[in-house]
Protein: Stress responsive A/B Barrel Domain
Organism: Marinactinospora thermotolerans DSM 45154
Amino acid sequence: MTIRHIALFRWAQGVTPEQIASVEEGLSRLPAAIPQLLSYSYGADLGLGAGNHDFAVVADLADDEAFRVYRDHPEHQAVLAVVTPLLADRAAVQFTLPS
Amino acid sequence: MTIRHIALFRWAQGVTPEQIASVEEGLSRLPAAIPQLLSYSYGADLGLGAGNHDFAVVADLADDEAFRVYRDHPEHQAVLAVVTPLLADRAAVQFTLPS
């Protein structure tokens, strides 16, 4: 089985493009730092739907243990320390991908 | 480019496993009905994180036009007619996958 982890962010009022670029720069370094990441994608909402969140992160991991390694990895925690103060809202799900 | 569409659902109080199974049954028929779906995955939250939503759908589509075909397709609209009355909350993002 593979676990797909999804996190959707809504930025707080006043968050700047420079701050979002800093988040993306941090995320871009994670696949090389965390070998448990089988696939990693993220990006800003395209504006195709009303009421959408602003940004998505999708991480595919082999199992629960790999998810926990990713979640607790110091490089990931460092990115979260940048992201968390910028959030108005976060929505997340982890589900099992069909094999 | 590929567009990745994500929708996260939080079920309303009182939604039953049978109703969720009906949603999954409807979703399972969409890849055969909508050739624009390059990849389609969905599933219930695994309970690994506090405060998570309950269910995720991830659809990969070639471009904006393919996303709109999926969004407006009668078979997809029929599933939405089942899903929407069951929702307490929905969060969504469409973003561009790296090529």
User: Anything to note?
Assistant: The interface with chain A takes residues 3-4, 6, 8, 41-46, 48-49, 51-56, 58, 64, 67-68, 89, 91-98 of chain B (CB under 8 Å).
